[in-house]
């Protein structure tokens, strides 16, 4: 599917819903805002939507006020653009209503993308959805990338490449980031907000997280656990877990790291809690395949899924994967 077909659809649209995945990371937020701003340049009526609150570390981004937590009247939209979602359900509860929007455009870089929607622009080789949105905006007539768009695109690329460290740190990622800096995105300001502003409570939580790390017998798999109890004890709110798991992955010889994040505590011990499991791997270990087998998705070296389980059972299930490492 070509970018031009997507541009043609956007051109003839009157009211566009833009949405990205729940519990958004920098890419989900950056791609959402930058495309929203570009479509506003075209004087399109838009609504940018994310079901979850925007994490505090991204609150500095210009034009965040554009993002709503409700979709409004779904029948008003003729087109939806779904960003950074491997599956339509990733946008949250609005997915079933959203599916009724006549034209659905799917823009994403996950290798596990289900190819939902009427028009797809999917590139697993792109560093981030923000990179793909950059390409799209660059092909839109009469739109020049302003400072606000530049900040959003830069932040999306920076977040998804782990500050230009992960395997998706391509020449294109650097090239576009360079352009965004020339257009006004200040790398120091972004890094300062995203990485260098930490509360004392957060440090105390990190302490507990480090303490929670367990290794498999062969030392190749690490599990880190984040419970509601820890959040309560330290008085912290976790709105973006994506950075935390790297501590578990840094350990020497570890090929696969898992973060078990208890999103909702279980009412009774037997029923188990709602967990989000983040997986990260080194080299050939494909965590997207593991996540997909549990109904989730992601990239070969970074993936996730949601599951209801007791902590003990979940640990056992994950430790099982150490045998193949
Ligand atoms: P996370 O560990 O939550 O930061 O996610 C790592 C990668 O996997 C991201 O690219 C996510 O978009 C993707 N991912 C996480 N959870 C899910 C899920 N439940 N379904 C599909 N993809 C997911
Ligand atoms: Mn994302
Ligand atoms: Mn992404």
Strands in their spatial order, largest beta sheet: 3-2-1-4-5-6
- What would you say the CATH architecture of the largest domain is? Alpha-Beta Complex
Bound small-molecule species: adenosine monophosphate, manganese (II) ion
Query: Class of the largest domain, according to the CATH hierarchy?
Result: Alpha Beta
CATH topology of the largest domain: inorganic pyrophosphatase (n-terminal core)
DSSP summary, beta strand count: 12
Order of helices and strands: HEHEEEHEEHHHHHEEHHEEHEEH
Describe the largest sheet: 6 strands, parallel
> Averaged pLDDT, please?
95
* Unreliable residue runs: none
CATH superfamily of the largest domain: inorganic pyrophosphatase (n-terminal core)
Which assembly state applies to the chains in this document? single chain
- Count of alpha/pi helices: 12
Written description of the protein model:
This protein is α/β, with parallel strands linked by helices and 325 residues long. It has two domains: 3-195, inorganic pyrophosphatase (n-terminal core), CATH 3.90.1640; 201-324, Diaminopimelate Epimerase, Chain A, domain 1. Helices cover 36% and strands 20% of the residues. It has helices at residues 3-12, 26-41, 95-98, 129-139, 147-160, 171-182, 187-195, 200-212, 228-234, 245-249, 287-293, 311-319; strands at residues 15-20, 45-49, 67-68, 79-83, 103-108, 119-122, 214-215, 221-226, 256-264, 273-281, 297-299, 302-309. A six-stranded parallel beta sheet has the order 3-2-1-4-5-6, covered by helices on one side. A six-stranded mixed beta sheet has the order 7-8-9-10-12-11. Strand 4, helix 3 and strand 5 (103-108) form a beta-alpha-beta unit. The mean pLDDT is 95. One manganese (II) ion (MN) binds next to loops.
């Amino acid at each position: 599917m070509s970018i031009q077909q997507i541009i043609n659809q956007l051109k003839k649209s009157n009211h566009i819903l833009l949405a990205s995945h729940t519990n958004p990371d920098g890419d989900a937020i950056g791609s959402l805002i930058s495309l929203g701003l570009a479509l506003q340049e075209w004087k399109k009526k838009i609504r940018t939507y994310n079901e979850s609150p925007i994490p505090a570390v991204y609150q500095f981004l210009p034009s965040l006020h554009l993002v709503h937590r409700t979709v409004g009247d779904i029948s008003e939209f003729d087109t939806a653009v779904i960003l950074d979602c491997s599956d339509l359900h990733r946008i949250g509860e609005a997915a079933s209503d959203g599916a009724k929007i006549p034209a659905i455009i799917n823009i994403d870089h996950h290798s596990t993308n289900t190819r939902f929607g009427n028009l797809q622009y999917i590139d697993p080789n792109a560093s981030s959805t923000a990179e793909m949105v950059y390409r799209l905006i660059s092909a839109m007539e009469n739109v020049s990338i302003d400072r606000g768009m530049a900040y959003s695109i830069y932040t999306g690329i920076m977040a998804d490449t782990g500050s230009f460290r992960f395997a998706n740190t391509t020449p294109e990622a650097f090239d576009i980031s360079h352009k965004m800096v020339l257009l006004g995105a200040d790398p120091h300001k972004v890094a300062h907000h995203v990485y260098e502003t930490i509360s004392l409570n957060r440090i105390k939580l990190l302490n507990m997280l480090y303490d929670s790390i367990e290794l498999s017998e062969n030392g190749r798999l690490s599990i880190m656990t984040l419970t509601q109890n820890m959040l309560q004890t330290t008085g912290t709110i976790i709105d973006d877990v994506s950075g935390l798991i790297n501590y578990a992955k840094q350990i020497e010889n570890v090929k696969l790291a898992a973060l078990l994040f208890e999103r909702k505590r279980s009412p009774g011990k037997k029923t188990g809690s709602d967990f989000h499991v983040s997986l990260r791997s080194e080299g050939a270990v494909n965590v997207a395949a593991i996540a997909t087998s549990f109904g989730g998705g992601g990239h070969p070296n970074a993936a996730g899924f949601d599951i209801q389980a007791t902590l003990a059972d979940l640990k056992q299930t994950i430790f099982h994967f150490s045998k193949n490492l």
